[in-house]
Write a structure and sequence with these properties.
It is a single chain. With 255 residues, the chain is mainly alpha-helical. The protein folds into 3 domains: 87 residues, protein kinase ck2 holoenzyme, chain C, domain 1 (Orthogonal Bundle); 70 residues, N-terminal domain of TfIIb; 31 residues. It is built from 9 helices and 5 strands, in the order αααααααβββαββα. A hairpin with a 2-residue loop joins strand 4 and strand 5. The termini are far apart. It comes from Tetrapisispora phaffii (strain ATCC 24235 / CBS 4417 / NBRC 1672 / NRRL Y-8282 / UCD 70-5).
Length: 255
């Protein structure tokens, strides 16, 4: 009896992959990134934290900032993405660029106030733990994380500096893009407030200090004293020259 061959057509009963459907839906949907997210994602803005929009819209938190830019209300609306699109479309490229610059300035000044609040300090603590602000270049500080701070609270005076809680000294940021960030956007009080709020982050001060040697021998104390005296003499001469004292006549005294 001959064997009969029966072709069986298999029916595909597999269900479509849910993950692929979600991915297609995500790709097809439009995603508009918020201004704050765009600002924080730009290179050079890594030191900034995300400010709660409710904090930005609170009038009490904006006191004395109204005169820092023109059309202050419009700038705030632009930062929190509530500015009408029709207004933006009517702005010329020059005015739109100015609006963007004003938004960065206002965000920075509000940021200096926000980071000394409970929420702001907590946000900066997470960045500090991740060493987002860099580490101390001093060898005996053992890669101590740094804190950003300003030498002035008024914008336009100086760029941001980095404070080391270990050696208690200031350093310039390594990246040139951070050297253009205004120090007023972090303020003069942040580092002190941060260490006061989180005392567990205060490290032990290093006791080691580098001592220069020649072939394993420390420099003679008398030689160190002579160099110090010479340095003081040069400083004094420079000071006298700055106040217009002639050192070549009458022992430096004017006639």
């Amino acid at each position: 009896m001959a064997d009969e061959t029966v072709d069986v057509k298999m029916q595909d009963t597999s269900k479509p992959d849910v993950g692929e459907e979600l991915e297609r839906e995500t790709d097809s949907s439009e995603y508009v990134e918020m201004w704050i997210d765009l600002f924080l994602s730009r290179k050079g803005n890594e030191y900034f934290c995300d400010i709660d929009p409710d904090y930005i819209t609170d009038r009490f938190n904006l006191m004395n900032l109204q005169k820092t830019v023109t059309k202050f209300t419009q700038v705030i609306q632009y930062i929190i993405d509530e500015l009408d699109e029709s207004i933006l479309e009517k702005l010329s490229p020059t005015k739109l660029e100015q609006l963007e610059a004003d938004a960065r300035k206002v965000y920075g000044l509000v940021h200096a106030r926000y980071i000394i609040t409970i929420k702001g300090l907590q946000s900066m603590l997470e960045k500090y733990k991740d060493a987002d602000f860099g580490r101390c270049p001093r060898v005996y500080c053992n890669f101590q994380p740094l804190l950003p701070m300003g030498l002035y609270d008024v914008p336009g005076m100086d760029s941001v500096k980095l404070y080391c809680p270990s050696c208690e000294d200031l350093y310039l940021p390594k990246s040139s893009r951070h050297n253009t960030v205004d120090g007023a956007y972090f303020g003069t009080s942040f580092a002190g407030m941060f260490l006061h709020t989180f005392p567990e982050t205060v490290p032990k001060h290093p006791t080691k200090k580098y001592v220069p040697k020649i072939f394993g021998f420390e420099l003679h104390k008398q030689a160190q004293l002579a160099r110090w005296q010479e340095l003081q003499r040069l400083k004094l001469e420079k000071h006298l020259q700055e106040i217009d004292v002639d050192l070549s006549k009458n022992g430096g005294f004017k006639n």
